[in-house]
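re: ur question from earlier - yeah i can do the single chain one, its not a big deal. heres the input i used so u can compare w yours
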Amino acid sequence: MKIIFDLRNTGLGNQGGSATLVNCANTLFKLGYEVYVVDSMKNQHTWTPLLAKHMINKLPDADVIIATGYQSVRATVKAPTRCGVKFHYIRAWETWQMSEQAIVKNILQQPTIKIVNGIGLQKKLKSCNIDSKIIRPGYDFEDFYLQTKRNNQTIILGGVYRTGKFAHIKRTDWILRAATRIKKKIKNVELWMFGTESNPNYSVIDKYFRSPSKEDKQYFYNMIDIFLAPTKQEGLHMPPAESMLTETAVVGTNAELSGMQDYLIHEKTGLVSDNNFQSFSTNVEKLVINKNFRKRLGVNGRMKILDIGDRKSNMKKMVEYFEEYL
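and the output i got, formated as tokens:
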């Protein structure tokens, strides 16, 4: 099977969405499929080497062509029939690109077969009368696993730091405010964060990892006790799930697009707060003061992510779905 990932007008950069596409393409390549990443520019993603062939504005013959970011949809729809059946792998609700009304008209109503990466997005599309198939990208079991026993003397909170247009989506301020509040009440609590931005130098952040490697993330996840994930607009939120592979307890919210409905089950695999800061902060504090509860959620959380599967098993599901249309 020949597969095209269409990234024209979107491109590859150093961020989570690009990393997911590179890992998907690489996994399919390792499974023996002929994979092309068609771009409008040079590959600017440096975190992970791309094994699939990278092409600039040249479309080979293929069995399947997949639109990726919203800006690539128009190009995919216009691709010649020799490029194969047209799919769209929807991994976010990209209101930073266009309004919801425009998303429905310019993205959802276009003649592509919709694949989504999680339950939240599937429900969102269904509310717009659009059917979709859930195919998750899978996880890197070989990179993230329980490696060290956590320090019982210090409770370390962890989270993702973002600024600019994504800060309100990740709700970075909730993490900072929750940590500040808890530190005033409870001794020996630290906050560690990672992100692509420069070190914010906030006093509440005890350690910051800029553009961490997989090895850095493995260390980060193994050191923190609780991952704070108040995000409100994700497809499938990857960092909390990666952290759960190291038996970290996670606190999320019941926001419509929290991106964690697939794996975060309240009081079973993590804590799911109401969609407000007070509830979120209260749930974080519950885990700070209850070691046994944290440990139980961490163990259960790891089992849940293992059940979802690695990248190889999930990409096999994607190919099986493609075959239904060939």
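The radius of gyration is 20 Å. not sure if urs matches, ping me
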